[in-house]
């Protein structure tokens, strides 16, 4: 049973960014790759007719991308009032301080090392910039510092790398955590139900309609993969390489680095549950970086 392909999750549509709702536009960064799908989604949030907007995840530190972000703000006749990060991975954060300095604003993030200014981010915060209100949700799992943002007036939920527009998210080591990730998916499901969310806006790949189905598929996918890993472990696998070779046998070579991180996260979870013992350092990060390009 091991290694079978699980059902496809997410959108099969092409994605070039652009407007999703009247208050949300995506400026797609040109950093497509195995880890970044079509590129990083830089989200510009703005209530039409108001003077300030928020930029979520400025992406790479590249002038051409800043130009595109500023052009999108100019087109809507708004100024950037805050730069906010879903998490610190470089494909989301590298350009944050440069863009903030360029626009004379601040950077807010959970991890202080990415902040510019004295305001951080905490789950439960409500951030209001101009007329745009953002509710902050702590959604650790993909990384320890992963945050999601609800735009209640817009029925949309920005998920960073916790939910992607295509395929499934990676639990990145050393600070990813599968147990926390399961809890974060439940938190997102609650938000979707409570606030009648109709769009998930991911950190990479197309915007997703049908959020409840997507989130249920994510949970099912994780449970199915974990069941496979459990079975392989029960059959005697002792290293992450053993598990990778069997459970992720059909994974394309360029995604094997991501799959290995997920294997380590799953083995760490089973170890935590007392179902697996190993001397292998499951927290060690891999040589692969998060901005590998094809
Ligand atoms: Zn990430």
Automatic annotation (TrEMBL):
Residues 39-204 form the Metallo-beta-lactamase domain. InterPro entries: LACTB2_WH, Metallo-B-lactamas, RibonucZ/Hydroxyglut_hydro, Sec-metab_biosynth-thioest, WH-like_DNA-bd_sf. Pfam families: Lactamase_B, WHD_BLACT. This is Unannotated protein. It comes from freshwater metagenome.
